[in-house]
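Q: Could you fold this chain for me?
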Amino acid sequence: MNPDLALLKPYPFERLAKLLEGVSPPGDRPLLRLSIGEPQHAPPEIVLTALRDNLDLLSRYPTTRGDFALREAQADWVCRRHGLRVDPDREVLPVNGTREALFAIAQTCVGHAQNALVGSPNPFYQIYEGAALLAGAQSVLLNTVEETGFLPDPDTLSKEKWDAMQLLYLCSPGNPAGAVMDKALLQRFIEKAMKHDVILVSDECYSEIYPDESTPPTGLLAACTAMGLDDFQNCISMHSLSKRSNLPGLRSGFAAGDKNILAEFLRYRGYHGSAMPPHHQLASAVAWSNEEHVRENRDRYREKFAAVREILAPVLPLNNPGGGFYLWPTVPLDDETFTRRLYSEAGVLVLPGSYLSHEVDGVNPGSGRVRMALVAELSDCIDAAQRVAAFVATL
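A: Sure. Below is the predicted structure, expressed as structure tokens.
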């Protein structure tokens, strides 16, 4: 067996299941889950129609590179959304959801140098750490705390760590705090990456869920273009239909950026066997080409955030996310005790913040917080918020 498998930490939801052993939610009302970020809104009918109408394509082997029509739709979306041009032939590559791509990019880009590092924000998406460890690197974490607006700071890493770094994951809007990296901060990371020859991979899967229609979050490639890096040197951004279009089961997204990195990523993926099914490709092209359902999706999240904040703000300190669908409140008990008691006494399931982060420099940025995913229907989110408020009032 691969000995590095033993380095993998239990997934947060494995730890959550263990935490809840021996307790049950109240039996007089339904359990409300705010623990997992799985979109619950209905997928767009135009995408479902495209899937149904093209099932005959299952008789074909798909290409790893993806059909040109899909890559063109993805490149056109980048142009409309970020005001920049990417080459659909060399600067865009379809992937089967960002989860597998975020893992695979490390296997492609991390060499076998001793003491190689892969960086990520802390808290972090578990895939970043697992990808680093199975690529033979060590994970180095940048704390994102309230005092810094829940944003990573490139200057917290020493020159020695930057020199040993081979790849650095960014996430904007962030998971779980929803903090958005502005152009200036992204460009600070780009400058460091170029100076130390580090590959930047920006996880932008939450970029299409944001509170103000007039100020969408910027992205890594737009920050590159603004500083004259039209070739996106050392920079890759990843996008997904899971959150944007309520299609987590489609497993569809794309990577865009540095053509030299993407050429090697394509080579890896040819052996990895990760081609997107043909009917998924056609349905994905439809989704990337339509914005109406995405605007409607944002409206629904805004409605939920407004309703839940009104209920919870009087009893819990709430952050103000610039994007995504999570709340990241501080809670009046340690996060594990709060989660276990909220589950058993109120029938609401959240995720302890400490399960999403590690202690670095004596600080665990997730400790004392919980993640609440506002993915359920409005009525369930309101019910959950009311139960949380009533539970907090008893403490």
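A (continued): The chain has a mean pLDDT of 96.
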